[in-house]
Give the backbone structure.
Amino acid sequence: MIRGLCKSDQPIAALHMFGKMRQQGFHGNNLTFIFIFKACVQLSDIVVGRAVHVNVLKLGYQSYLYVCNTLIYLYGSCGDLAGARIVFDEMSDRDLVSWNSLICGYSQCNRFREVLSLFGSMQAENVKADAVTLVKVVLACSHIGDIDTVDFVAKYIEDNCVRIDVYLGNTLIDMYGRRGLVFLAEEVFAKMEERNVVSWNAMIMAYAKAGDLMAARELFDKMHNRDVISWTSMITGYCQANRFSEGIALFQEMMAIKVKPDEITVASVLSACAHLGTLDVGKAVHDYVRQHGIKMDIYVGNALVDMYCKCGSVNTALEVFFSMNRKDTVSWTSIISGLAVNGFHDNALQLFSQMLEERCKPTHGTFIGVLLACTHAGLVDKGLEYFDCMEKHHGLVPEMKHYGCVVDLLCRSGNLNRAFEFISLMPMTADVVLWRMLLSACKLHGNVVLAEIAANKLLQLDPGNGGNYVLSSSTYATAERWDDAMKIRQLMNDDAVQRPLGWSSIEVNAIV
């Protein structure tokens, strides 16, 4: 009865039955205690487990191998690794299950170095590991980045003819995929006698991470049974490779066959919509989230804010932002940057102040948004003040993009000499973007002297970019120095530099 109840969906009834048995004067035997400990595992009841352990010691059943193995499993599952280790160390006889039970306990509690230490002890005592052991060892290696042990495990599997079951195979494919070793993942996939949907998904993700989307799609199309992770892996792969249109098309195909997306799918598709500016699709996805009860976690919320901002729908972005139960730095950065880019500079700076009041630490990305807001508002002194406080108050060393924002701020306000001086005093060498900003501003304000300096720098740093020649020529033309303008045009022809092409995009019926 205890065994049957232990295996049912009411393990607590097994404990009640054990209590009744003891009331009638029966103490139980080694099998009884094995099933009681298993019931305690299902209930995560370490208190009853310890009490029954005392009975085991009183009755002398601690010498039974299977009883001790189940005890280690109980203590490890409930997080009492000290208790599990005591039982393990006091065992006069151990088998592979003993080692695996303790290793699984350490793995479950994220004590990965102890997992590898135990694996080493197993080798020292000539205990042959099986697939269960090696799954935990590979997972431990993945978490702590121990590549050498992973390579040893691969050789160990081959030397000891360890059968690669579906769990070990999936773990190895995932590990090799994360390392970008697709050819090794393919070898494991080919050797597996049994595969499940996780195996196929792991292989698709391995191909996607390596950028081989053709192989990933070929495998995806071959799958007989796909789950939401299969679709999400393929969609995310397209998005990570900047093939956003294909990602959205696959999502629409997923919707057509009634596969319900999860939070990761939704976040990936919204990111694609943000990059393409497909507001209609983004809105449709948002409506689907609300209608079908998909969890509105922080990642979906952030993706929605980013999408609406990049599509110019700022009011909706603000509604989503303020409706979020939890916000992180990404949430604040997305809304601040979105407001700045769309011209709502006052709101952006107000939200930045609110962010600091709520003790949310800004990042480099946050200050990009703040500096952009100052640039569009023409707040030169305020922008320089924010730039200075990055390192002084927040410990953030400005990067090239922050210097670019300041140069843009000074150039837009007509402070060209100040912008040139700022570039000259930078602790790093200015890139082509900064010099192009200065050259563009010189054209606008007719400053030929600085334009020549900026143009020479650009022709040194980026001689193949036709835009630099066009800007320089236009600056001379604005100052009516036609001979110099023609020289630049001739130089462009002599060097066979391609003229830059302009392009635009428009969304029609959800297609860009």
About this structure: The chain has 30 helices and no strands. The chain has a mean pLDDT of 89. The radius of gyration is 32 Å.
